Amino acid sequence: MVISDKVRNVLEWIFCIVIAFVLAVLIKYFVGTPTIVSQVSMNPTLKSGQRLILNRISRTIKEMPQRGDIITFEAPSVKAYQSIDEIDFNSPVAKYENEPTSWWGKFTYYVLEIGKESYIKRVIGLPGEHVKIENGKVYINGEELQEDYLAENVVTEAVQNSYFLDLTVPEDCVFAMGDNRTQSTDCRSFGCIPLEKIESKVWIRFWPLDLWGHVD
User: Which of 119, 98, 120 is nearest to 109 (CA)?
Assistant: First the structure.
């Protein structure tokens, strides 16, 4: 069978498009990707409308983030508990109950991130550490945590349905909160985040241009 030059050119273009799509997906999932801040929970560090580059290499190599890192993670299916009686404090880990089961559902949800909701917060507590929130402050293993990144006069208190205020962070999990403590739905409400649900670290802010640079 002889393929005409016109058909061959079309096939070559299709092949190039497919390769480009596959490479883009691989880079986005394993290396890094741009995103836009759409929440107010990280004010004043990050404000709505700012554009970031996320580093996903840490997820690829399954590296535990450090205290103070700003991360993104898959939003839990249970955003806040309605009663403290629902919580197992022996395993204060966020719940993920609505995950897709088919291979196509997993691909579109986890890889293409269609219909997937993510949160952006700052790592406060690491595995094995005792985190306690009281009197407007955060204590790690009994010592007050110095949080110079918070705006002046910001205090850390319970928000609506925030029952996770005194706990030990489980293995392979982190405790994270937004810098805008009164306007943040975070681990105080839904529990600690498993390492496998952490998607990336915030790396660079590239918009607005006057704030270009590494974010910490």
Answer: 98
In 3D, which of 141, 111, 147 has the Cα closest to residue 129? Answer: 141
Backbone phi and psi for residue 183, each to the nearest 5 degrees, phi listed first: -120, 30
Q: Quick one: which H or E segment has residue 202?
A: strand 198-207
Q: For residues 207 and 131, what is the distance between their CA atoms, to the nearest angstrom?
A: 34
Of 3.40.309.10, 3.40.50.11810, 3.40.50.2300, 2.10.109.10, the CATH number of 31-214 is 2.10.109.10
Query: Does the pLDDT of residue 1 top 70, yes or no?
Result: no
- DSSP per position, 145-172: PP-TTSPTT------TT---SEEEPPTT
pLDDT for 5-19, tens place per residue? 787 888 889 999 999
Rounded Cα distance, 188 and 162, in Å: 5
Confidence class of residue 179 from pLDDT cuts 50, 70 and 90?
A: very high
* Residue 183 pLDDT grade (very low, low, confident, very high; cuts 50, 70, 90): very high
Query: What ranges do the domains of the chain cover?
Result: 31-214
Asked if 198 and 59 count as a contact pair (C-beta separation under 8 A), the reply is yes
Q: How many CB atoms lie within 10 A of CB 77?
A: 13
Supply the pLDDT for residue 107: 92
| HSE, side-chain direction, 13 A CA sphere, residue 194 | 8
